[in-house]
Design goal:
Blueprint lengths: L5 H7 L40 H13 L4 E5 L2 H9 L7 E5 L4 H10 L6 E5 L4 H7 L4 E7 L11 H10 L3 E5 L4 H4 L9 E5 L13 E5 L2 H14 L5 H11 L2 H21 L5 E3 L9 H7 L6 E5 L3 H10 L4 E2 L9 E3 L11 H7 L5 E5 L5 H14 L1
Parallel strand pairs: 2-3, 2-4, 4-5, 5-6, 10-11
Antiparallel strand pairs: 1-7, 6-7, 8-9, 9-12, 11-12
Helix pairs in contact: 1-2, 2-9, 3-4, 10-14, 12-14
């Protein structure tokens, strides 16, 4: 059955009642192997590295939410990105957003560069700059929108046009936005990646990743890598994702409500030098955000001007937990220069705008007033 509504698909696709028992919640299939009717003749499953009923259900679900045809699940977001790069060959070139997550830059520059794949980083807010970065050997345009941690946006439709004119694929890391906020495949992207650890699982109890596409040939190659390299999520992690995604629409509404309120508070507080949140009308890309996103998510960053002021702010927070990751129901805070982007050189961080005073907030789904009170008292201490 084709479901039109996002929340309906999140609850029902891949999550039909169990045909054997009628259980409303699909079971977790923990089996590592499956009985065959005859040698080489099985019922769709032979070994759980290759395929697993619970993982298949999760892949069907997230493919539907991203308006894709195929989804391939991995053990982490980085494993998913790594599989995408495996589509390339030695000598190929990547054009990428300048302010990517530090782990992605590390993968490109310190792992795949040793196999002859190079990357050029460019401000993806500027389509002309992206065009000029392409070479004859460029095969991949890789962007985040919004970016981590500065919440810069790229015009996804324009990026798709540029990539396709150069015979390259457009890959969009949609982790910050989620398919509830935007669906890059509908804007022309070829591949969408997620760290399912974040908003999709949403409860800080899963590590996982996924790639979604509409291209059968890319899906076939990615599924081969999934099986051959074996970086798969466990059935239990897939089941947790299926459980969690049922409430994604509701959670994202409260995440956005809280982040917008915090951003508005920070925008007028004298301790804050800059606020980065696409949902604010003062954000330089607010109109683009309104055009390609339907939810501005719970992520924002603010600059307090110095490392000392940032650390003082962090010391006084009570409700926001200082921790890596994002997108959980609880509010988290991080200091990108020493946490998520510590693998970058100080010069590289400065070049993309990640200052020592930058703070990244992941607003959870707590009561808005409690979050505002916590942020206010911490800012007043600065």
């Amino acid at each position: 059955m084709n479901y039109r509504g996002f929340a309906t698909r999140a609850i029902h696709v891949g999550q039909e009642p169990d045909p054997t028992t009628g259980a409303v919640i699909p079971p977790i299939h923990l089996s590592s192997t499956y009985a065959q009717d005859a040698p080489g003749k099985h019922r769709g499953f032979e070994y759980s590295r290759t395929n697993n009923p619970t993982r298949q259900a999760w892949e069907q679900n997230i493919a539907a939410l991203e308006e894709g045809s195929y989804a391939i699940a991995f053990a982490s977001g980085m494993a998913a990105i790594d599989a995408v790069v495996r589509l390339l060959r030695p000598g190929d070139h990547i054009v990428a957003s300048a302010d990517l997550y530090g782990g992605t830059v590390r993968l490109f520059d310190r792992v795949w560069s040793t196999f002859g794949i190079s990357a050029t980083y460019v401000d993806a807010r500027e389509p002309e700059a992206v065009k000029h970065a392409f070479r004859p050997e460029t095969r991949l345009l890789y962007i985040e929108s919004p970016t981590n941690p500065l919440l810069h946006l790229a015009d996804i439709a324009a990026m798709a046009d540029i990539a396709h004119r150069h015979n390259a694929w457009l890959v969009v890391d949609n982790t910050f936005a989620t398919p509830y906020a935007q669906q890059p495949l509908t804007l022309g992207a070829d591949l969408v990646v997620h760290s399912t650890t974040k908003y999709l699982a949403g409860h800080s109890d899963v590590v996982g990743g996924v790639v979604v596409t509409r291209h059968p040939e890319l899906a076939e190659r990615l599924r081969f890598f999934q099986n051959a390299a074996g970086a798969i999520p466990s059935p239990f992690e897939c089941w947790l994702c299926l459980r969690s995604v049922k409430t994604l629409a509701l959670r994202m509404q409260q995440h956005e409500r809280n982040a917008r309120a915090v951003a508005e508070l920070c925008a007028v507080h004298p301790a804050v030098q800059a606020v980065y949140y696409p949902g604010l009308p003062t954000h330089p890309q607010h109109e683009l955000a309104r055009r390609q996103m339907r939810n501005f998510t719970g992520m924002l960053s603010l600059d307090l001007g110095s490392a000392e002021r940032a650390l003082e702010f962090l010391r006084h927070l009570r409700l926001f937990t200082l921790a890596e990751s994002l997108g959980g129901v609880e509010s988290l805070v991080s200091h990108p220069a020493t946490m998520t982007h510590a693998s970058l050189s100080p010069e590289r961080r400065r070049s993309v705008g990640i200052t020592e005073g930058l703070i990244r907030l992941s607003c959870g789904i707590e009561d808005t007033e409690d979050l505002l009170e916590d942020i206010t008292q911490a800012l007043n201490s600065v």
